[in-house]
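Bumping my old thread because nobody answered last time. Still need a sequence for this structure:
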């Protein structure tokens, strides 16, 4: 009933789903030791994240000198495993050359090797028999190298889209082949693992959804009148498609003069979005709300008739689960795992990269009677609870941990 979790940077405000998963496992009786390569302490705002940071052992916090001494000591006592891990680090480093984010070249993989050796030492000292990593990037690399040099067996969860953007550079197939089991957060994610893992590994590839805590979602607030009022939530980055959403709003406004979008989040594309809003004269129709805490995000959902997700690339956005749990319909692009959750009964699916399709979905939302929108919200709420209850998803993980990936 004892296990370790490993994340590259943890906790982070954008990764509360990992904290929810760990806490759900603890409610089921598991003892979880949290490891992270680094801390994001200065950026934390949520008291729950700050408390989680204090519970996490951050490997790089000990300093380069102590880390190197610890690693060399472990490798000296496990020379055969260290040689295997060194060879794997060289192979993965060769694939990771070329500046692909999260991969690095051979030099960076030597750093991963040192981190892995220290991690193996700590897992041995704490008698931790299994290590589960989140994301198929450098955290899974460290977990794999750790296992090769005498550390605990490992598993990892793949989220996407980053892992699927660079599967060769990340040696994603090798990581899955070496792991006791690998988890994807959607069937689409598992299908991508099928592409890169050995066919013999396929029985050890499983789907476990990210989860929400249903008790945090009371009965939905009444739908606002007028509008339509939309909310979009996410980092203002390339993959989220918010620049295209601004174009879609501009296309829909002539037919819907009361249309308003609240865009929650911040990021590098904010100046471009502001410029596009000014170009289309959307100051009265789009509000850039910036980063909001969890409570104010819920308020933004309550003030909207629907969530809109114009993404170009995703795994399966937690914000969709949360909006559906809050009783709101969803307009989203037909990508990755999104169609596994959003259906015609709970919202509208449109092709990615098509501003006119987004605008047409907004027009359809506006033409939908309020009573029908309430029905869609209730169907969305039920579907989110059925598929993404964190305690139910954690139970799936416990079966995998107990059976070493072969339930």
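Sorry it took so long. Here it is:
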């Amino acid at each position: 009933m004892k296990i370790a979790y490993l994340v590259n940077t943890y906790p982070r405000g954008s990764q509360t789903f990992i904290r929810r998963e760990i806490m759900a496992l603890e409610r089921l009786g598991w003892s979880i030791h949290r490891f992270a390569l680094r801390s994001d302490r200065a950026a934390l705002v949520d008291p729950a994240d700050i408390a989680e940071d204090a519970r996490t052992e951050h490997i790089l916090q000990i300093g380069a000198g102590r880390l190197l001494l610890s690693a060399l000591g472990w490798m000296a006592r496990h020379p055969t495993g260290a040689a295997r891990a060194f060879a794997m680090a060289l192979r993965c480093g060769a694939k990771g050359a070329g500046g692909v984010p999260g991969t690095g070249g051979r030099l960076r993989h030597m750093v991963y090797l040192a981190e892995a050796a220290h991690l193996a030492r700590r897992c041995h000292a704490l008698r931790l028999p299994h290590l589960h990593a989140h994301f198929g990037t450098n955290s899974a690399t460290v977990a794999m190298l750790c296992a090769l040099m005498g550390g605990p067996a490992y598993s990892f969860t793949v989220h996407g889209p980053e892992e699927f953007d660079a599967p060769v550079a990340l040696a994603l197939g090798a990581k899955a082949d070496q792991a006791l089991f690998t988890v994807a957060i959607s069937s689409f994610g598992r299908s991508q693992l099928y592409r890169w893992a050995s066919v013999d590994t396929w029985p050890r590839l499983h789907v476990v959804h990210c989860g929400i805590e249903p008790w945090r979602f009371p009965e939905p607030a009444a739908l606002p009148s007028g509008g339509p009022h939309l909310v979009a939530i996410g980092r203002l980055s390339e993959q989220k498609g918010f620049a295209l959403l601004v174009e879609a709003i501009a296309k829909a406004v002539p037919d819907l003069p009361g249309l308003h979008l609240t865009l929650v989040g911040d990021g590098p594309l904010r100046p471009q979005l502001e410029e596009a809003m000014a170009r289309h004269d959307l100051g009265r129709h789009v509000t850039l709300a910036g980063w909001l805490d969890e409570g104010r995000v819920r308020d933004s959902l309550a003030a909207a008739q629907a969530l809109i997700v114009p993404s170009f690339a995703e795994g399966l956005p937690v914000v969709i689960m949360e909006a559906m749990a809050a009783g709101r319909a969803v307009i989203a692009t037909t990508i990755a795992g999104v169609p596994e959750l959003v259906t015609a009964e709970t919202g509208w699916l449109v092709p990615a990269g098509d501003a006119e399709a987004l605008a047409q979905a907004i027009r359809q939302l506006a033409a939908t009677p309020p009573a029908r929108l309430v029905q869609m919200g209730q169907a969305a709420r039920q579907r989110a609870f059925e598929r993404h209850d964190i305690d139910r998803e954690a139970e799936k993980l416990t079966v995998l941990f107990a059976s070493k990936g072969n339930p």
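The mean pLDDT is 95. Let me know if any region looks off to you.
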